[in-house]
Write a structure and sequence with these properties.
Elements: H1 23-44, H2 53-64, E1 84-89, E2 92-97, H3 104-117, H4 126-143, H5 150-164, E3 167-169, H6 176-188, H7 196-210, E4 211-213, H8 217-224, H9 235-256, H10 260-270, H11 275-291, H12 299-318, H13 331-337, H14 343-363, H15 367-382, H16 388-401, H17 411-423, H18 434-439
Antiparallel strand pairs: 1-2, 3-4
């Protein structure tokens, strides 16, 4: 995090009314005050608004004004603040980058208008409400409007959004770490746009855990009346998604292949017309990965493919044209795309799918099954084999997933089954060595 950025003192502590310089003490006071104010907001039903920047600023100010003199100011104010957060998804360390501070207002207006086209999610049955709420929560999370307090501001906003749609979204019912993991997973987008629902699966599982229908005639009416068909993303929303896709794939390529990509992508995300300057260089990097010996099943190769498509889409953005609609794959194509051909492909598929399923299991109270599935994934990342006790842990996780709403037929569960169909057989090339050793390791629980 940057220091002395307009929101902080020289030592990096956030500027506050009391002049506290101790970060831990300030965090405790801030949390207590914001929690108290959030409870008042919830009791009042929130603050009227359209969930755009102006509305979120009012919520942020209500929560933090007694602590911070800059409460209600977005990152774009006081000189602008960008910031980067470190995270790890699928055992891969990476950065989370938020929307450029200059675009905060524009992007929130775009998201707000799309939300209004869906009548602020009124008239939706629980499963559909959670599905769409997860989509919007991810969009708002990525904008990250404020220097500090984004999570609590969005929790207050979505508590209000849920209430107005007939649902109680109670963020206090779940472990904050689960929310952070699900939020980060959605932001870094480990899956390509064709499988976008997988990126949101942990966030949906989290919301499913904390969302219940409100009692009363008014709430029932809100859930059953005023529904609108889920609209196609507007041209402005497609623009946001194209730039996000370029940034997440470009960031991973920069960290693992060519650091120069990071600044070039940053220039394009902040101003898409800069694509003309960097397009050739970025495509050269992408081509070098695709033709340079990186295996097609490796995530870097897959990111290079995604990166190239993102560049194609941003070309439309830079020219001010609408991006062609992305055709969703058929069910048969989804099943086929998730069918690995060898142990290497099966290993990568198992690790990705297990990350989603384990998060969902833990979010639904299946903590042991979720953690053991994660342990198996860690083992598979080193040795592509599933047998013995590990096979039992996977089966237990699959049995548990059948009891989770919406997870039984979810693509990640199918991906695990497809991967295990290969991983349960030792690699032929190592049948006399590594695989035999692995078979004898299955007696003491999860292999390590």
């Amino acid at each position: 995090m940057a220091q002395n950025d307009g929101f902080t003192y020289e030592n990096g502590t956030l500027i506050n009314h009391i002049g506290i310089q101790n970060k831990s003490l300030l965090a405790k006071i801030e949390n207590d005050v914001a929690g108290f104010n959030a409870a008042i907001l919830k009791e009042r039903g929130g603050i009227p608004g359209n969930f755009n920047l102006e509305h979120l600023q009012k919520i942020h100010k209500q929560l933090f004004q007694s602590v911070y003199p800059w409460a209600g100011e977005s990152r774009a104010e006081r000189g602008g603040f960008q910031g980067v957060k470190e995270t790890e998804v699928n055992h891969i360390p990476q950065e989370m980058r938020y929307a450029p501070f200059k675009e905060i207002e524009t992007r929130l207006e775009t998201i707000s208008k799309q939300l209004q086209q869906e009548n602020n999610l009124n008239g939706l049955e629980p499963e559909k409400f959670i599905d769409r709420a997860a989509y919007y929560l991810d969009q708002y999370n990525h904008v990250h409007a404020f220097r500090e307090g984004n999570g609590r501001t969005l929790q207050a906003a979505f508590t209000q959004l849920g209430r107005e749609a007939g649902y109680n979204i109670d963020f206090s019912r779940a472990d904050p770490a689960k929310y952070n993991d699900a939020r980060n997973f959605a932001i870094v987008k480990p899956y390509a746009p064709q499988e976008a629902s997988k990126n949101l699966a942990p966030l949906k599982a989290f919301l499913n855990e904390i969302t219940t229908p409100l009692p009363g005639i008014e709430a029932e009416r809100a859930r059953t009346e005023g529904a609108s068909k889920t609209p196609e993303p507007s041209a402005a929303m497609k623009r946001i998604e194209a730039l996000r896709e370029l940034e997440v794939t470009g960031g991973r390529i920069a960290d693992r292949w060519d650091i120069a990509v990071k600044q070039q992508v940053k220039n394009i995300v902040e101003e898409p017309k800069n694509l003309k300057t960097h397009d050739r260089d970025l495509r050269t990097v992408s081509k070098a990965i695709l033709e340079g010996g990186v295996k097609p099943d490796h995530y870097l190769y897959q990111d290079a493919e995604r990166f190239t498509k993102a560049l194609d889409h941003v070309k439309y953005v830079s020219a001010g044209k609408d991006i062609p609609a992305l055709k969703a794959p058929s069910r048969a194509q989804q099943l086929q795309s998730g069918q690995p051909k060898n142990h290497t492909e099966a290993k990568e598929l198992f690790i990705k799918a297990s990350a989603i399923v384990s998060l969902e299991l833990k979010a639904h109270g299946k903590v042991t099954e979720g953690e053991r599935l994660q342990d198996v994934a860690k083992f598979v990342s080193k040795v592509p084999f599933v047998g013995g006790v590990n096979k039992a842990h996977v089966n237990n996780a699959l049995d548990a997933s059948a009891t989770v709403p919406g997870l039984k037929e979810e693509g990640s569960v199918i991906d695990i089954k497809n991967a295990v169909s290969i991983l349960e057989k030792p690699e032929r090339a190592h049948s006399q060595g590594t695989a035999t050793k692995v078979l004898h390791q299955g007696r003491g629980g999860v292999e390590r």
